[in-house]
Amino acid sequence: MTDFEIPGAKPETLLITLTGKDRPGVTSSVFATLALAGVEVLDIEQIVLRRRLILGVLVTAPRDWKKLRDAVEETAASLDMSVDVDRGTGDNKARKGGRSHVTIIGTPLKAAAMGAVAGRIADCGANIDRIERMARYPVTAIDLHVSGADPDMLRSVLAAEAARQGLDIAVQPANLLRRGMRLIVMDVDSTLIQGEVIEMLAAHAGCEPEVARVTESAMRGEIDFEESLRARVALLEGVPESAIGEVYDAIQLAPGARTMVRTLRRLGYRFAIVSGGFSQITDRLAEDLGIHFARANELEIVDGRLTGRIVGAVVDRAGKAAALRQFAAEVGVPEAAVIAIGDGANDLDMLNAAGLGIAYNAKQMVRDAADTAVNVPYLDAIMYLLGISREEIEAADAEAGIVTPSPPV
């Protein structure tokens, strides 16, 4: 027991809050003053907003706490900063209930929308303990550390508010899974890449409109995926094999796709693509991007032309989920550590099988069923849900000699 503790009483503490223009040596000067009093540090927060520093330090209060207060005020004056010293008892109150990370993505993020989200969190009896900016361009992404509410209940409440405010909001339990090595399983058409490969192939057969209509119906879940796929592939009969190479060369990745894969691979993540499309395309994509696993349907080719048939079993809705489980087992991670990303009805089983299912620019029925939805056209925005900031991404790219666009001034 130290000389400032009384048996059975809550320990007295001092909350020291320093504000002013940031400069080198501010934090070290404050702690040099605190060191002379021999106090213990119980908590600390420091942020810098537009070169203005806010430093909060919670310390044990010595017997002669007024002497320490005077010394801290003298130090602050020498730094041309303001300081407030508040005497009280105890540490930060431990809040009952779960802890969550609430990630908010807006383009832009309006003050009214942020206020509405904060209001719903308060309505749940929860508290925002910490706020961090993950990105300010091309989207604004904010991560809230929230305590005092069950994550599932919070997710339900904030999903409704996100729809009202036109935001993307993800709620994840605050646990070690967010920091561990994970497996990311992605759909391909309209997720990893822009557009649908089968429609691009159909353009070579002169039946693109018909194929597009069936594709849309299948993605909305109106017709059986396998039935629709076989019907669409039948229309490709006679298309030369060379068309596959032409389609591959014309593919455009989703904005941010390379950045996401490159960055997360550096952190030890594993990637898989699981597609109702075709292995002749997905295998090349996997090789190009450095993706570890790929699963898709195989087009039958005879004498240099498509036969209009598929070789083997169809990778459908159930097949995608089965592939996810197989890849997770091969990597050695639980399904709770898998992140699945998709946009169509045939992705639903895969999204439900994952620990975090993300509907990416998806149909409404998929957004309603997924854990969260990302509706901005940047695939790398998903990294903000994992606690990785834009600044960290750009710093890693700079070390590797990769030039990234400058933010708007």
Automatic annotation (TrEMBL):
GO biological process terms, semicolon-separated: L-serine biosynthetic process
Catalytically driven reaction(s): O-phospho-L-serine + H2O = L-serine + phosphate; O-phospho-D-serine + H2O = D-serine + phosphate
Entry superkingdom: Bacteria
Cofactor(s) this protein requires: Mg(2+)
GO MF assignments: L-phosphoserine phosphatase activity; magnesium ion binding
PROSITE patterns documented for this protein: ACT
Domain ACT span(s) in chain numbering: 15-88
Signal peptide positions (record): none
Residues at the active site: D187 (nucleophile), D189 (proton donor)
CDD domains reported in the protein's UniProt record: ACT_PSP_1, HAD_PSP
Gene Ontology cellular component annotations, sorted alphabetically: cytoplasm
Protein family (similarity comment): Belongs to the HAD-like hydrolase superfamily. SerB family.
Name listed for the protein in its UniProt record: phosphoserine phosphatase
Gene this chain is encoded by: serB
